[in-house]
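INFO batch 0412 | record 1 of 1 | parsing
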Amino acid sequence: MHFSIPETEVRSGENGSTYVAYNIHVNGVLHCRVRYSQLLGLHEQIKKEYGNNVVPAFPPKKIFTLTPAEVEQRREQLEKYMQAVRQDPTLGSSEMFNSFLRKAQQETQQIPTEEVQLEVQLSNGQKVRVNILTSDQTEDVLEAVATKLDLPDELVGYFSLFLVQEGADGGYTFVRKLQEFELPYVSITSLHSPDFHIVLRKSYWDTAYDSDVMDNRVGLNLLYSQTASDIERGWILVNKDQHRQLKSLQEKGSKKEFIRLAQTLKYYGYIKFDPCITDFPEKGCHVIVSAGNNELNFHVKLPNEQMKEGSFKVTRMRCWRVTSSQVPVANGSANPCSSAKCEVKLELAFEYLMSKDRLQWLTITSQQAIMMSICLQSMVDELMVKKSGGSIKKMQKKRLNGALHRSDSNQAVKSPPLLDSPDPNREQVVKLSTKLTSVSLRGISASSSNNDISGNDFHGNYAFEGIGDDDL
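INFO prediction complete | emitting tokens
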């Protein structure tokens, strides 16, 4: 998830006074508005619970009213603070931090806590309506859907809720996987558009887990409908002979055999993203990116109209980053960005081991860059859990005294700690694997653009350490 505070606004208080509100955005979309005092309260709570050594620096109080320049300075400091807390493996996943964001989201949208009916779609478009509270978090809603479908508790962790946008052609654009710090009802309602839906979909990548799901009637039906839908959307490649075989199995009602055949097809289990731009193999190339099978697959259209295909394995990505910036909307004006004339530009860049001792940065410019990053992280998490002898069943969250805790097997999968960058002009970066000692880390300096709103969000890759010489 990509946190930023790109803007502030002056709002009126209850007694007629005014105050500065800091707008916290997630993935370039407003999540909540908070006052400095609210963030200070969160900071004091975190400090009390985790100690001064863990908590990042927080901008100090001011006695007098802030000047516009001081407000801007505080905005930048609070943005860095929120990013640092979110990136910390302990603080960023803490119930204290997540509950703060959920409460702030609900207060910002001014939605009272009450019973409502929420519509969740299955992959085939079937609608499931569940009765929930507006204040129910993502896990609560997922459990409610599972209960409505009669999906066993032990299979709930195999599925997740995704926010998608439906296009005019009926195609789906994956916006993000719903997170623990948000309230699904509030998230979908605040978009004020019928084009957005919450969709239930499997959340794992390793097709070996399909067997666990197919052993249950409800799990089998969910996996079958997702597979059939992906084939219909063209996400899974099928030739005429395979299409005939699949149709025959459908007519017979042979769902397991249908899935088994689909598992042998190209792009089974992949998520396909909207067309975007990449700088590989050269700048400005149009590309369709798909994520699956522990890789990002590129289908690139070169400037000479030639089509090329290639895959980039997650185990050969040393790290990746997501950046966002505000860019003027093309309207013939050269004026700097204003809130009414700007759009958020998102980029995913990853450092890839092209050959032994040669690393290269590749960049994808896409509004789905965050979703791509989430896919990469979940692939790494799954690989590391499997490597440690764990399983996806042990990755499920469990409720204990109102708080969420992960099982021991998943606690071993943590993001690398943050290190102070030797360059004061750069944001903090994540410690990277030292596997290739002959290749130096090439940091990326912060953007010099006045439109930069976020700095660099680095993700180190522990799965990179699993590369041996034989893999190169």
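INFO post-check: The chain has twelve helices and 21 strands.
INFO record closed
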